[in-house]
Amino acid sequence: MRALVYDGRLRLRDDYPPPKRRPGESLVAVSLAGICATDLEIVKGYMGFHGVLGHEFVGRVIESDRPGLVGTRVVGEINCPCGRCAFCRRGLGNHCPSRTVLGIQGRDGAFADLLALPDGNLHAVPDGVADREAVFVEPLAAAHQALITSEDFAADVTVYAVLPVDQVASLEAAIANLTAGQSALVRLGEPST
């Protein structure tokens, strides 16, 4: 299959082996993938990752143990916890020391024809949401998580973002507006990095 692979240098390959789906995972045909600043940092050595980059995606399930998922257009959570450790048993899979992370740590990512993710990580995309919108679910989720875990975030916060801003800062401003019920100026433009 085709894949954008980082192994010390960035290469587009057309002979990369397709992912092997494990029990409880689905195979997804990637329709669209977004480039994130994390992807750019990985090629500079961040996380020491080697493999297929990419974690922002939308695609269609082509194979699954759950027949109802086949044919479904999906986006996915990127953290894949072990499900067995103390963190996982307490519902804190994002802190699992054995987790893999799509396109970042121990799991090939979305810059390929196919990817594999646990069924529980997949979320159906409503028909009214275009691929070009759905691909922003992961950065939107990351921005939301950053805001709700921030000690500085309070209900009376007003966030203003001005150009130039990056994607996540824009999304954080929009979420702060929705969450706090306050006004926020959000202007999407060229990334600052």
Give a structural overview.
This protein is an alpha+beta fold and 193 residues long. It has five helices and eleven strands. Strands 10-3-5-6-11 form a five-stranded antiparallel sheet. Strands 2-1-4 form a three-stranded antiparallel sheet, with no helix packed on it. Strand 1 and strand 2 (10-13) form a beta hairpin. The model is unreliable at 154-165 and 179-193 (pLDDT under 50).
Mind telling me the CATH class of the largest domain?
Alpha Beta
Question: Which regions contain 5 or more consecutive residues with pLDDT less than 50?
Answer: 154-165, 179-193
User: What is the second-level CATH architecture of the largest domain?
Assistant: Alpha-Beta Complex
Please list the strands of the largest sheet in the order they lie side by side: 10-3-5-6-11
Please write out the topology.
Elements: E1 3-6, E2 10-13, E3 25-34, H1 37-42, E4 51-52, E5 56-64, E6 73-76, E7 79-80, H2 86-89, E8 100-102, E9 106-107, E10 114-118, E11 122-124, H3 131-134, H4 137-148, H5 167-180
Helix pairs in contact: 4-5
Properties at a glance:
single chain; 193 residues; alpha+beta; Quinone Oxidoreductase, Chain A, domain 1; 2 domains; five-stranded antiparallel β-sheet; three-stranded antiparallel β-sheet; 25% strand
